[in-house]
Amino acid sequence: MNRTTARGHRKARIDLGRAAYFGDGPWDVRATAALGIPMVGIGRRCRQLRDLGVRFAFRDYTDPDGILSALALLRTEGANKAVPAACDNARP
Fold first, then answer.
1. Among 40, 49, 57, 69, which is most exposed with the fewest C-beta within 10 angstroms?
2. Taking a C-beta distance cutoff of 8 angstroms, is the pair 27, 7 a contact?
């Protein structure tokens, strides 16, 4: 999967170094890790995604400023920083 995807992106002239993926499941975490693409978690599994190593996970899209800040941080700091303790906009 890695080689095929990388080959396809090179052929299409797409720079994955600037990509970020929005996902909601453990399968998304595995896929983005395999491709080396940072992921922003969205959805009811946000705590599970955090436990799996997703740095930024949001319950929903109701915090656009937080999501844009997360994207900016991923771009400048990279995806491998420490994971905060809870979902950024999780509701109890």
1. 69
2. no
Q: What is the pTM of this model?
A: 0.70
Amino acid symbol at 21:
Y
Q: Position of tokens 């978690």?
A: 41
Q: What is the mean pLDDT of residues 78-87?
A: 51
Q: For the range 77-83, what are the long-range contacts, defined as Cβ-Cβ under 8 Å and sequence gap of 24 or more?
A: 78/38, 79/38, 79/39, 79/55, 80/55, 81/55, 82/55, 83/50, 83/53, 83/54, 83/55
Paired tokens of 7: 């080959």
Q: What is the DSSP secondary structure assignment for residue 53, as one 8-state letter?
A: T
